[in-house]
Amino acid sequence: MVALAVVLAIAVAVVLGWVALYNGLVSKRNAFKNAFSQIDVQLKRRYDLIPNLVETAKAYLAHERGTLEAVVAARNAAAGAEARAAARPGDPSAMAGLASAEGVLAGSLSRLLAIAEAYPDLKANQTMAALMEELASTENRIAFARQAYNDAVMTYNNARETFPGMLVAGGFAAAQPFEVQAPAEREPVRVSFQG
Fold first, then answer.
1. Exposure of 116 in the CB half-sphere (CA atoms within 13 A)
2. Averaged in consecutive runs of 10 residues, what is the pLDDT profile of the chain (195 residues)?
3. Angle at the Cα of 52 (from 139 to 99), degrees rounded to 5?
C-alpha cells in the first residue's frame, strides 16, 4: 500500500512538472509574440510618417524624384514584410524578410535625409522639422521594442533548449530574433579633423 502511494505521488509529481514546463513554454512564447506586437505598433507608426515626410520634401526636391520614389517603394516593401512577420512572429523566414526590408528602408531614408540636409529651406520648414523629430522619436521606440522582443525570444529559446524544458519542447518551434543588418551600421565611423 505504501509502495502504491509512493508510485502514485511520483506519477503526480511528474505530471505536474510536465504541465508546469509546458505552461512555462506557452507563457514565454506568448511573451515574445506580445513583444513583437510592440515592434509592430512602432513600425506602423513609422510607415505612416514616411509618406508625410516624402510629401513635404517633394516641393523642395523635385529633381530628386528617384530618391523619393525609392523611399516610397522601400516603405511599401517593409510594410508588406512587417505584415508577414506580424502573422508569424518569430518565424525565421518572416523575420529575415522583415530585417532585409527594414535594412533597405533605412538605407533609402538615410539617402533622403542626407539630401534634405543640403536644402536650407527644407531644413527650415516647420512641418519637415516636426516630422524629422517624430521620426527620430519613433526610431528610438523601435530600437527599444526590438531589444525587448529579442530578450523575450532569447528567454523562450533558452527555455526550449535547456533541460528539462527540452523534454516538452517538441511542439514549440525556435523563434528568430529581429536583427536589422544595415551595412552602414557595421562600418567604422570616419573622423576627419580637417576644417
1. 23
2. 93 94 96 96 95 89 88 96 95 94 94 86 86 93 96 96 91 90 50 38
3. 40
